[in-house]
Design brief:
Elements lengths: L2 E4 L7 H12 L4 E3 L6 E5 L3 H11 L8 E3 L3 H7 L4 H10 L4 E6 L15 E5 L4 H10 L3 E5 L12 H8 L5 E4 L9 E4 L6 E4 L10
Parallel strand pairs: 1-8, 2-8, 4-6, 5-9
Antiparallel strand pairs: 2-3, 3-7, 4-7, 5-6, 9-10
């Protein structure tokens, strides 16, 4: 049964987020809010967490997981990025974008695209997500909470708990989330390629 954490959207309770961070460190799988929509999240090295996300969303091994980072210091440890791309990303973050880039050795092989050796990274513009990342002290391995055969992500914390109570360890709720996932831009081929149009304005990459 998933624990339910009601978190203030503007002044998240540090003790509550400390409990959530401890669950993540203990290989727990959570649902948490971001600036685009709710996401599933676990520790980067959690094989069980990755397997559970794949099971919930029915994902194959070509799916790009996203490593949600607090800042560029964390992001820079996970992906290879040149100066031009750095400046482009810096201008667009924090925000509702996911960037696909070549992974560094810090990223477990199971999280990388099997052929391209790439991974998704993002820095969210969301008070609760940022506070949780700060409390945890490391990035969160994430995937949009979009269930198979459904067109839109779940937006209500109580509904997520009701429907996924048996497969999650915690639900972090700070009010309604959006229904649009992030805009995904692939930089692995050099020039930016918009892979998915979403909550972030794609205009700056076109």
């Amino acid at each position: 049964m998933a624990k339910y954490f009601d978190v203030h959207p503007d002044n998240p309770q540090r003790r509550t987020l400390g409990s959530v961070a401890e669950l993540i460190r203990s290989d727990g799988l959570i649902a948490y809010p971001t600036d685009s929509c709710f996401a599933l999240g676990c520790r980067i090295g959690s094989r069980d967490g990755v397997a559970r996300i794949r099971s919930i969303r029915q994902l194959d091994d070509r799916h790009h997981f996203t490593l949600v980072c607090r800042d560029f210091a964390q992001l820079g440890q996970l992906v290879q990025i040149d100066n031009d791309v750095f400046r482009t990303l810096k201008a667009a973050t924090p925000g509702s974008y996911t960037f696909i880039l070549p992974a560094t050795r810090e990223v477990p092989r199971q999280l990388q695209h099997p052929k391209k050796k790439t991974v998704g990274v993002r820095i969210p513009d969301h008070t609760v997500a940022q506070a949780l990342l700060d409390e945890l002290g490391e990035p969160i391995l994430s995937s949009t909470l979009l269930l198979p055969d459904e067109d839109e992500p779940l937006t209500q914390g109580w509904e997520i708990k009701e429907r996924l109570d048996h497969v999650l360890d915690a639900v972090v709720d700070s009010g309604d989330c959006g229904t649009e996932p992030t805009t995904v831009i692939d930089f692995s081929g050099g020039a930016p390629e918009i892979v998915r149009h979403g909550a972030g304005d794609p205009g700056r990459f076109e």
